[in-house]
Amino acid sequence: MEVVIVGSPEEGARIVADMVEETVREAGERGATLGLATGSSPVLAYRELIRRHREEGLSFAASRAFMLDEYVGLGPDFPQSYHRFIRENLVDHVDLADDRVLGPRGDAPDPVAEAARYDASIREAGGVDLQILGVGTDGHIAFNEPTSSLASRTRLKTLTRQTVADNARFFDSPADVPVHVLTQGVGTILEARRLVLTATGEAKAEAIAQTVEGPLSARWTATALQMHPAATIVVDEAAASRL
Ligand code: GLP
């Protein structure tokens, strides 16, 4: 695992954007398959990609993308849905076609079947070239809460109280946060050819220490990155403070 400690969140965002740009350029006309994460951690990197699209002509026209997760019950146009988050923070501002950005459907009538369908669709598309990740304060990646199998596939999960509390800032009240989600599994995520996890701030310091130095454990699902041959962690000094 490569750990990059940066002086500012903006510097970290440029490094993540560099990796995305390299992936897009390497893929050429074949088109890159990007793995997009929600949450506040990747937002600055998305802003940097939007800037490069506008000012430097970086094109995503040939690319496609898969999202990590979605709240059960929220359709793609619901304000707090992850589909909408990705549109507002990236897709609407670049030349990546909306119908080439796929995620699990939170409004699917049968969430269990939807999880299996979505998992298969990632494989059928040839897998993800570069997966962007954040990390929860309890060390989860996507919505793979503590004790998730490190071999898990895309499935229905229940959020912990901690994650509901952490994500309540995006909703009017904590009671509005859905407790069920569809999430790519840890095993699904590990199939991406390259992973980049980004985190900033003291609140992520313990999760980053466990991810980098802790024993491999389903208690902190981000530790699964230790098993990946091409994983990079980009953190600021506060997030790196317990390393
Ligand atoms: C949610 C998402 C994760 C994300 C995490 C951290 O739980 N499912 O993919 O990594 O939040 O979010 P933030 O980057 O806002 O701290």
UniProtKB/TrEMBL annotation:
Pathway participation: Amino-sugar metabolism; N-acetylneuraminate degradation; D-fructose 6-phosphate from N-acetylneuraminate: step 5/5
Q: Which GO terms describe its biological process?
A: carbohydrate metabolic process; glucosamine catabolic process; N-acetylglucosamine catabolic process; N-acetylneuraminate catabolic process
Coiled-coil ranges per UniProt = none
Q: Return the EC number.
A: 3.5.99.6
Site residues, Part of the allosteric site: S148, R155, K157, T158
Q: Which InterPro entries match?
A: Glc/Gal-6P_isomerase, Glucosamine6P_isomerase, Glucosamine6P_isomerase_CS, NagB/RpiA_transferase-like
Q: Which GO terms describe its molecular function?
A: glucosamine-6-phosphate deaminase activity; identical protein binding
Activity control, as annotated, is:
Allosterically activated by N-acetylglucosamine 6-phosphate (GlcNAc6P).
What this protein catalyses is: alpha-D-glucosamine 6-phosphate + H2O = beta-D-fructose 6-phosphate + NH4(+)
Q: Which residues form the Glucosamine/galactosamine-6-phosphate isomerase domain?
A: 11-225
Keyword vocabulary terms for this entry: Allosteric enzyme, Carbohydrate metabolism, Hydrolase
Q: Which family does it belong to?
A: Belongs to the glucosamine/galactosamine-6-phosphate isomerase family. NagB subfamily.
Q: What does this protein do?
A: Catalyzes the reversible isomerization-deamination of glucosamine 6-phosphate (GlcN6P) to form fructose 6-phosphate (Fru6P) and ammonium ion.
Matching NCBIfam families, A to Z?
A: nagB (TIGR00502), PRK00443.1-4 (NF001684)
Q: Mind telling me which PANTHER family this protein's record contains?
A: GLUCOSAMINE-6-PHOSPHATE ISOMERASE
Q: What is this protein called?
A: Glucosamine-6-phosphate deaminase
According to its UniProt entry, this protein's organism is Brachybacterium nesterenkovii
